[in-house]
Amino acid sequence: MTLPKTIVKSFLTLTALIGTVVSTLRIKVMPSRTSLVAASHYMHPYLLRIRDIPHKVSCKFFSSYPRLFWDIWSFSFVYDPEQLALHDWNIKAVDLILDAKPSSVLEVGCGFGRNISYMIDCGYEPGVITGVDLSRMMLRQARIRLRGSKVKLVRANACDLPFQDHSFDAVFLSLVLMHIKPSNLKLAFDEAIRVAKRLIVILDEYQPVPATSLSLPINRYTYAHDHVRILELYGISPAMYTKYIYDKWIVILISLEDRS
């Protein structure tokens, strides 16, 4: 049974708020051996479980509303140290783009603007950057983060980009393919290839996938894809791309300059 959208939104807004509040709780462990220290050690794993409950509930009930899922969880992202951090894989993906010196960049799945902010900090011209995200609230957070810059932010679906063919020198698929259903994956690839001129950079989750499948569901909104087999299936030969693996993350640089 599918619940009315207003009920789902109200309930999950509340659970997301609870998750955000609990996730900000920190019990500092002092060096002295006191009862407070012992209590903090004891309570920490339980606090982590409580923090994760709203997210698990959201995943279960939001299966019909992916855009709503990201709208509601957008405000918690900007307080999550893991989301705010620039990890090695984020830096590598952005550096591959900047090293190519593209005349324009489209980031698909820009979220609250973490990668775009890093591009600007590295000296890249904001006026030639466009960010796309499915979530209106994520884009609102991005506008706050990028306030005063000339970055263009557009609400759109990765499977239906509102741009002309070859509109951007570089297209960056940032942690977005992992949230696209396998049945829609080719649409997203086709759209990225269509709007890109020179190169595509993919940053995605990396996990082993059984040889009998191209994708493996992790939860209701996340999939592990066999990127190498998928690229070859879609006509991207090994000579056209370079991959870099960081534990459970993969960065792929695809050159389109020699495509027919």
Brief write-up:
The protein is built from nine helices and nine strands. It has 260 residues and is α/β, with parallel strands linked by helices. A seven-stranded mixed sheet has the order 3-2-1-4-5-9-8. A two-stranded antiparallel sheet has the order 6-7.
Q: Which properties best describe this structure?
A:
260 residues; Rossmann fold; 9 helices; 20% strand
Layout of strands and helices, then pairs:
Layout: H1 5-23, H2 35-61, H3 66-77, H4 81-84, H5 88-99, E1 105-108, H6 114-121, E2 129-133, H7 136-145, E3 152-155, E4 168-174, H8 185-195, E5 196-205, E6 215-219, E7 222-225, H9 227-233, E8 241-246, E9 249-255
Parallel strand pairs: 1-2, 1-4, 2-3, 4-5
Antiparallel strand pairs: 5-9, 6-7, 8-9
Helix pairs in contact: 1-2, 1-3, 3-7
Can you offer a commentary on this structure?
The protein is an alpha/beta fold and 260 residues long. The protein has two domains: 60 residues; 173 residues, Rossmann fold (3-Layer(aba) Sandwich). Helices cover 42% and strands 20% of the residues. The longest helix has 27 residues. About 10% of the residues have low confidence.
